[in-house]
From TrEMBL, chains A, B:
Keywords: DNA-binding, Transcription, Transcription regulation. It comes from the Bacteria. This is GntR family transcriptional regulator. Pfam families: LacI (PF00356), Peripla_BP_3 (PF13377).
Length: 352, 352
DNA sequence: CTGAAAGCGCTTACAG
DNA sequence: CTGAAAGCGCTTACAG
């Protein structure tokens, strides 16, 4: 028999110092690196955040240890301590099949090149929850926010201003942005398309559009410009977002049933326009002779494959880039508030 | 004269307690809410994280104060303290014009419904920096990671396994995933398209493809299946990502210059296919009679508007949903490792 | 159902 | 160029 009977001796759990380790033993900490490298944690911190202030050999030694151990600093801790999260929030309705995704792409690339990461929040098309989404986002303490559109509740606007971080609103236009703005006027697009139709000699313009804020702004410009020309009745088919080819395909026959003499239709998106074009073909309506169709977005697809389509080109990438730059300028201590109208262009291939 | 001359008396900076406030006085803290509500900070914390454990009246009172003050908890602090970041990282090549954006959309929606936020990291098409991107991402201590593809360096794979968080690889197939997988076989797609071409009686198949890993896997399946049928020479035009309509349009003439008798071409994406279709038209080649064209992606655009195009349908949304579910199951304590082949379908309208 | 104490892993501001 | 002390704003684990 051995001299001790381990199983008999009760283990005094209380005697063991209560470990307060919570995440488990997995995580490497800055102190682990510091110990191995024979420096203080502060020096390790500097290696990551201000390498120029560290002696070359020290730098090298610490880096070797970091590499060897596979240490990755904890930015939750770093952010809490420094009050700099290095996070930028982007709130967009959707990234699926949309021009917004180009904006996000370029925005995100630009931000990450500058050392920031992008927290993506998808708001859908309901404005209801934008504010609770903002709360969720603000809980990460982002250093800047990109917003889509300019239609926000007063409470959201005020809260965002109180937070004191730079904000860019995008993809729309207003005289009273929360902070900065990079966008264009949907209303003016409606006006421009109306003028295009008028110039073509359209007698009975119609509209197929989703019911979101920005589509409604285009509609308003469209209708008001037509009203100036004496056309007060505009046939409309309003569809629920998200727009799709299928939606456009089914909307056109409905529109023409209400108003058989419609000879030019402004669609809320290229997808809708393509659907409408398909429907027109099926109905034997010559495009653009009998029926002119104008979309919105200028997707490469649409314009390359549907030469008889007119559309409105908007530069989503430029919006992403300008918005990122505006934010970065301010984060670098710049005082200027960017206000950029990127404009748009009605692109018609049917006449060229 | 007043009894004191403030400007004369030197201000003893040392005497003032060194304020360690760094973020400035702006931020509301949990203690502010606690004080106003007459409870301890712990109770306020519970109101957010475990409301069921708080007495109804206390709950109500605290919520009122939160509302009134506009308090938003600091998740940097919360995450550090609890070792739960509530963050999920998604690393994808791009979100612009791509099926990945559908995946991200659904993934993000599903995750946010479950109380997580998505940190989006765009890797581009270079594998070079995927590892440094991963470091950046891991510094936020995400609780799970979505990866695109299965081609990762050993070091990345090992590191990710060491971190011990659930990982889903997507959009590809392998026998040896890092952890979980939701995808499909690009090789098998190549095989299937080859078989389609063979069934159509193609004598001289060709390929227009980008050079990324997954496109190359499709190419391999395509070539190997054709080789089995005795066709060892396959004309190819390899293009640099990202694919676009323009690229496809310029690639087809090059391909046909090398191999004028090509009668069926497998394109790496629908965009390339559309470009090729445009070029074929311009060259007076009947599609699919003289030249069959097959794309990849089944974009609604492509199939609705180009009835003579064949394509390969892949369900990006399903990938996003399944990947999210796999991660969530594991985060909820599930032990199962998802391994899902979502498959694909060759969709040909030219024969229907 | 509620709270006092300790600690999460960093960085700031100071001093040398 | 480097470091000891204090603190960022929460939550855990315990106790009652």
């Amino acid at each position: 028999m051995p001299t001790a009977k381990p199983t008999d001796a009760p283990i005094d759990l209380k005697a063991a110092p209560a470990r307060r380790t919570r995440g488990g033993p997995k995580g490497l900490r800055i102190t682990d690196v510091a110990a191995q490298a024979g420096v203080s944690p502060i020096t390790v911190s500097r290696v990551f955040n201000n390498p120029a202030s560290v002696a070359p050999e020290t730098l090298e030694r610490v880096r070797q240890v970091v590499q060897k151990l596979g240490y990755v600093p904890n930015r939750l801790a770093g952010g809490l301590s420094s009050a700099r999260s290095r996070l930028i929030a982007a709130i967009v309705p959707t990234v699926a099949h949309s021009l917004f995704s180009e904006t996000i792409q370029v925005f995100s690339e630009t931000m990450s090149r500058a050392g920031y990461e992008v927290l993506l929040a998808l708001s859908g098309y309901s404005d209801t929850n934008e504010e609770s989404l903002l709360d969720t986002v603000l809980s990460r303490r982002p250093e800047g926010v990109l917003l889509t559109g300019v239609a926000h509740t007063d409470s959201l606007r005020e809260r965002l201003r109180n937070v004191g971080i730079p904000v860019v609103e995008t993809w729309d236009m207003t005289d009273t942005p929360i902070d900065m703005l990079v966008g264009f006027s949907h209303y003016q697009i409606g006006v421009a398309v109306a003028e295009r139709f008028l110039a073509r000699g359209a007698k009975r313009p119609g509209l197929i559009s989703a019911s979101d804020v920005r589509a409604l702004a285009r509609r308003a410009g469209f209708r008001e410009r037509l009203a100036q020309a004496g056309m007060t009745e505009v046939a409309e088919a309003i569809v629920a977002p998200p727009s799709s080819v299928a939606t456009g395909k089914s909307a056109l026959p409905r529109l023409l049933q209400d108003a058989p003499d419609v000879d030019a239709v402004f669609c809320g998106s290229d997808l809708l326009a393509i659907g409408a074009l398909g429907a027109a073909r099926r109905m034997g309506l010559e495009v653009p002779g009998r029926l002119a169709i104008c979309g919105f977005g200028d997707l490469e697809f649409a314009t390359e494959t549907m030469p008889r389509l007119t559309t409105v080109r908007v530069d989503g990438m430029r919006i992403g880039l300008s918005a990122a730059r505006a934010l970065l300028d301010r984060l670098d201590g710049g005082l200027e508030r960017a206000f950029v109208d990127v404009g748009f262009r009605v692109v018609g291939r049917e006449s060229g």
